[in-house]
Design brief:
Strands 1-4 form a two-stranded antiparallel sheet. Strands 2-3 form a two-stranded antiparallel sheet. Helix 6 runs antiparallel to helix 15, helix 9 (205-214) crosses helix 23 (491-503) and helix 10 (216-240) crosses helix 11. By secondary structure, it is mainly alpha-helical. 77% of the residues lie in helices and 3% in strands. The longest helix is centred in the first third of the chain and has 33 residues, at 96-128. It contains 24 helices and four strands. A hairpin with a 2-residue loop joins strand 2 (189-191) and strand 3 (194-196).
Length: 535
């Protein structure tokens, strides 16, 4: 049984890493993959184990879900290197060993740092502060629920039907494709200053699945973004900025939107960090004294810190970071990662991008770093924050299914190691097989970060218009970065996600259908890997 659990954890870690790498670069969001992994583990262990196996399912999910968040962090940040300098990136990829090794080491250093932070904070956040860590509780309830068989059937139906659909659409071996990939909804037309391009409907069930699960969170901003492109941005270019080509105008407008979104998000960060450090009451509460005292009581954390920091600094030195830049990154990441896990412990969302940008931007002015190092910084923060959050979700789940704490930790270390190795390999494979920036790997989050970094290179007036539009969006409670996705993303991808969100309006209890769409999501992602291997 132990061998089955270890092998399953390794396989699931590889799959979750590959799936979420693809999803995070194909769409602007990174849904938690832990519920899908839990459903798959339930089916597998019910076949091979004929007794209560809730703990075993917990070990598998806690181990393999790390790959999902680690891959999401990489997919959101790392492709920025390509958008900043495509020629240099392509040249770098000509040496696969160097490319893959650099990403594996970066992921391992940031992931281990995030793991250590989670280890130190676990007792304080889960036991003393009693944060709920909602995703951990959700997965635990799925594992112990009485309707597991029904959920498993839904997942299997979703998986099998999606696989069958994919074979009919793309063909495999002797089977020829019989279904189209797109259907044209509207031919190109123009009315006065409004120019509407050809609008295709992408027959891509994975987009529908993601849209269904995220619902209005993503659908409404994407609708606004699509309408803003054709109803606001393009008419402005046509009337006032004819001397600027459309692509340059949209990049400048989007850059202004990204800058305003960043500034408004960052304005909230100092308050959060001030509250975290409790500056006014620091002398009375002895915040840092208590923290150091806690470490001294748990010397295993100090021993791990010694090995971890040595490894991290070697990796950062290998990647070309100066000594002071290394310690800036470590201290800033420690502070921001703690804040990320506190927020995630309350609301279930890991706000990686906001804090990564908050650490990244000051580094531009403090150190003489090349643009690759700036992207490394953002990726490091996102990985550390994401891994720490997922670790604590797993620990909460483990407590609820009565898993052995030491065993659970060992499975999480296994998942981290496997995921780091898999992330480097699969990122290279995906980037090599599907062009970054194409419809299949649009990497909208990475493009948004590129626009932020290159903001000063764009037309100032257009930049200001985009910034004003971003402020307006914030006033009406819309996320500027998700709207930016609808503004810049290919219209067929936006429509697919919006269509999935609209499907939730047809059902009374959408959570009942999550297992079905989880199966669709898993099958579609797995199908993309099959296409990579056999085409």
């Amino acid at each position: 049984m132990q061998l089955l659990l270890i092998c399953t954890s390794i396989i699931f870690s590889c799959l979750s890493t590959a799936i979420m790498l693809y999803v995070s670069m194909a769409t602007p969001i990174g849904p938690w993959i832990a519920p899908t992994l839990a459903l798959c583990a339930m089916i597998l262990l019910r076949v091979f184990a004929h007794k209560n196996c809730d703990r075993s399912i917990g070990y598998i999910v806690a181990s393999s879900s790390i790959g999902g968040i680690l891959a999401t962090a990489i997919g959101f940040s790392y492709p920025t290197i390509y958008f900043l300098n495509p020629e240099k990136f392509d040249t770098w990829m000509q040496n696969p060993w160097s490319f893959v090794l650099s990403l594996i080491l970066l992921a391992a250093a940031a992931g281990w740092f995030g793991m250590w932070i989670a280890n130190v904070c676990e007792e304080s956040l889960i036991v003393e502060k009693k944060l709920s860590f909602p995703i951990g509780q959700l997965v635990a309830k799925m594992i112990t629920a009485g309707d597991q068989i029904k959920r498993a059937y839904y997942l299997l139906i979703g998986f099998a039907s999606s696989m069958f659909f994919s074979v009919l659409q793309d063909g495999l071996f002797a089977i020829k494709s019989v279904l189209p990939r797109t259907v044209v909804l509207l031919q190109a037309c123009s009315v006065s200053v409004f120019r509407i391009p050809i609008i295709p409907f992408e027959i891509w069930p994975m987009l529908w699945a993601i849209g269904f699960v995220t619902g209005h969170v993503i659908a409404i901003p994407l609708v606004v973004g699509a309408f803003a492109r054709f109803g606001v941005a393009e008419p402005l270019q046509y009337i006032f900025f004819k001397s600027i080509d459309m692509q340059s105008f949209m990049l400048a407008f989007g850059s202004g939107l990204a800058v305003s979104g960043f500034l408004m998000s960052v304005l909230k960060v100092p308050k959060s960090i001030k509250k975290l450090l409790n500056i006014k009451g620091m002398q009375a509460n002895n915040t840092f004294k208590n923290f150091s005292g806690y470490l001294l009581q748990h010397k295993e954390f100090l021993v791990e810190a010694l090995f971890m920091l040595t490894f991290v600094q070697i990796v950062l030195w290998y990647l070309g970071f100066q000594f002071f830049a290394q310690w800036y990154l470590l201290i800033a990441t420690l502070i921001c990662t703690y804040q990320i896990v506190v927020i995630a412990g309350k609301i279930g969302l890991a706000q990686l991008g906001r804090f990564a940008t908050f650490v990244m931007v000051p580094s531009l002015f403090l150190f003489s770093l090349d643009i690759n190092h700036v992207v490394y910084i953002a990726t490091f923060v996102e990985i550390a924050g994401g891994v720490a959050t997922d670790i604590l979700f797993g620990r909460m789940m483990g407590r609820m299914v009565r898993a052995d704490h030491a065993t659970l930790k060992s499975y999480q270390y296994l998942g981290l190691i496997v995921s780091c190795i898999a992330s480097g390999i699969f990122f290279y494979v995906l980037a090599r097989h599907f062009q970054i920036g194409s419809t299949l790997l649009y990497a909208q989050r990475a493009q948004a970060r590129q626009l932020l970094l290159q903001a000063r290179e764009f037309n100032g007036y257009v930049l200001c218009l985009g910034a004003l539009f971003g402020i307006l969006l914030k006033k009406i409670k819309l996320n500027p970065m998700l709207v930016l996705g609808g503004l810049l993303m290919p219209i067929n991808v936006s429509i697919g996600l919006i269509f999935g969100g609209a499907l939730t309006l047809l059902v009374k209890d959408k959570e009942q259908y999550y297992p079905f769409w989880s199966g669709v999501f898993a099958a579609q992602s797995l199908w993309m890997l099959i296409r990579v291997l056999f085409t």
